[in-house]
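Q: How would the structure tokens look for this protein?
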Amino acid sequence: MLSKFGEKFTDLFKRYMPDSFVFALLLTLITGIGAILFLEATPLKVISSWYEGFWGLLEFGMQLILILVTGYSIALAPQIDKSIEKLSAFIKTPTQVYFIVMLLGVLLSTISWGLIVVVAVLARQLALKVKGINYPFLIACVYFANNVWVTGLASSIPLALNTENNFIIEAGILDQIIPTSYTLGSTLNFSILALYIIFAPLLVLLLIPKKNKKQELKDFIVDQAAIPSQSIEEEAASTITEKKSFSDRLNHSRLLQFLIYAMGSSFIVYYFATNGFDINLNIVIFIFIILGLILHQNPKRYGVSMKRASSNVSGIIYQFPFYAGIMGIMTHTGLGGSFAKWIAENASIEVFPYVSYLIGGIVNFAIPSGGGEFAVIGPSLLEAAKQIATGLPNEQVIELISKTSLAIAYGESLTNLLQPFYLLIVLPVMGAGTRIEARDVMGYLVIPFLFFFVMESILIIFL
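A: Here is the predicted structure in token form.
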């Protein structure tokens, strides 16, 4: 029954969901019109806000590209390929593939959402080896698994609240940091985490499509060059001249690469020794780079792996500025803050976190970035939480603010299942050389969205 619903939703998305870039263009117009209608912003104000925000995600966009490319490079290493070969020897059926990919994706995403790249590579390799896999559904599994990141060690909103002199403190809303024991270490967060670990893999098994005809990876490949005939070692070795020159020796020097690896690994040890287990995008990217260096052994091999890994990142490069522009309209016209404030003023203390959950989900369509969205609506919602909690002991005020912040994060993360923005992390890996589009995948995520929306709603309201 559930699998049939998934197939019907997929058919609907194929008919009506546009390309992810068109989705961004439509959201730009909708957000701009909303600012004009509800805030009486002038068209010039909207357009200038759009331009001002256009460059706001350049750092984040580059981080995302580096996460994708460096993670993919690791997965292309011969040691990883051999491990996948060994693992695939024990995985014989599509059902086993879906379950393993989903479970591994959930576990790794609790450490950092960037690690989903490794799972995407594993899933693609397994799809080439195991017959009968519905490939769009497998991509949906990988994307769905990544949704748990918001409960994990790299969750941007709890980490921001635990940062000295964060923007909430600078705005005068808080006068101290909020330790992660109130957010990531809360009963609510552990309950949401358990929900994903236990139910997400089981839900996927119930949603496995019955029709897999012409849905395998081989049926979608349009560019065979996306599957190189040469290994990385062979391509790197082919560049060596007959008389091995000095430049060849440098290009293929293991000693040179090892020295850089030793420098990088020393810093990683120092970083965690001085900062504790503080995970952020920059340190994850750095770890990926250093690990890639040692796995590929010499500069030329690493260069070949990076070239292959970066061959399909154009979607991120040209779409990110448009989503940043949407964020600019929301921020600089005051639309995001006004929307949050208007709803918050009409909420009681009992339902306020849940209202914040709904706001986080809705605003995510316009600002698909946890940290970016929190920068826009966080101050308004947390100030409202303080006002609602006036007269309560300080401990309870902090608990309400913490729960409100988590609720925003959960809402923002969940609606990613209906918003193709972060599919840009998975598709460059799993869709390379194929005709796969976001609309082929998103329909399978509607039922997971509905299930987790109900379950998260219950936990946020009653815990």
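The longest helix spans residues 254-275.

Residues 2-226+312-462 form one domain.

Upvote if useful.
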